[in-house]
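Translate structure to sequence.
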């Protein structure tokens, strides 16, 4: 061995358990590569802290040790909350597997997150956004179909680009009035597709999609295609949304989730039941959906303040 070199440090018992946990969430829990990568990064920093403090066995981790790690973290409350969640999931796994009798993170809670309301466009602004995409060129028909679909269903951009063309067609090879999408964690849900979105999708599927497939070296079965016939990426879909926002004079007001937020807010404002909106959005808990109720109440309050003669 050359002078000055050293052999790699053997993994600690806790690091070996961490690798078993990551295999478990990958193979048995079916977590996505992106999620597993986030777990790995969070737990790697946690392990470094434990080793620096002489903790190499799972039984030696105490609530004070975990608390000390969290107190040294910087970043937004949401980031700290995510890292604590990774740690909690890991220690819960160790208890379930009988590696440790107690979970040292069980009594710890995430820092309070500031109340942050999602941005929602008005109905008029959404109409301007949709009207910004005009023309019969294949990419224009695709872009209009994508935006109409996002607003009609409240789907995430990532869910939209994962759809295959067969996912949206019924037995008569027409666009169905309700389709199944794959959400976070592999959860599936049905979402209705309104008449405007169906019409836009019909035009795209029958007129534009075949044109995009012409000459493609590796034609894709994806519903939304790029200009070379491959599956449209999430980044490209976001660029389409951003370009439409600039044309509509809405630059700075639109994000990848804007049409999803607008969908939820407009359905609730129109009298939709919060439990139905929860199902449409694919939220596992209604508490996540309730933030839109506050958006709606704030909107009602603003209208009341402006319109009622004795409100001020």
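Result:
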């Amino acid at each position: 061995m050359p002078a000055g070199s050293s052999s790699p440090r053997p993994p600690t018992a806790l690091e070996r358990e961490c690798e078993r946990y990551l295999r478990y969430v990958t193979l048995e829990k079916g977590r996505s590569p992106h999620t597993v990568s986030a777990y790995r990064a969070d737990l790697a920093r946690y392990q470094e802290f434990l080793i620096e403090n002489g903790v190499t066995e799972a039984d030696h981790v105490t609530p004070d040790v975990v608390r000390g790690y969290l107190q040294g973290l910087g970043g937004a409350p949401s980031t700290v909350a995510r890292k604590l969640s990774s740690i909690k999931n890991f220690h819960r796994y160790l208890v379930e597997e009988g590696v440790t009798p107690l979970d040292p993170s069980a009594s710890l809670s995430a820092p309070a997150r500031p109340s942050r309301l999602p941005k929602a466009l008005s109905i008029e602004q959404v109409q301007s956004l949709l009207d910004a995409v005009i023309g019969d060129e294949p990419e224009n028909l695709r872009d209009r179909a994508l935006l109409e679909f996002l607003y009609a269903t409240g789907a995430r951009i990532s869910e939209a680009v994962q759809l295959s063309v067969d996912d949206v067609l019924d037995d008569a090879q027409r666009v169905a009035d309700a389709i199944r999408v794959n959400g976070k964690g592999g959860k599936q849900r049905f979402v209705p597709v309104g008449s405007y979105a169906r019409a836009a999708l019909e035009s795209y599927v029958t007129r534009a999609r075949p044109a995009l497939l012409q000459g493609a070296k590796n034609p894709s079965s994806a519903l939304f295609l790029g200009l070379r016939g491959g599956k449209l990426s999430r980044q490209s879909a976001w660029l389409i949304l951003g370009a439409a926002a600039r044309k509509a004079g809405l630059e700075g007001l639109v994000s990848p989730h804007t049409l999803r937020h607008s969908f939820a807010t407009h359905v609730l404002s129109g009298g939709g039941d919060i439990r139905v909106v929860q199902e449409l959005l694919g939220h596992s808990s209604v508490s996540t959906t309730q933030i839109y109720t506050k958006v709606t109440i704030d909107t009602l309050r603003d209208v009341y303040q402006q319109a009622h003669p004795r409100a001020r």
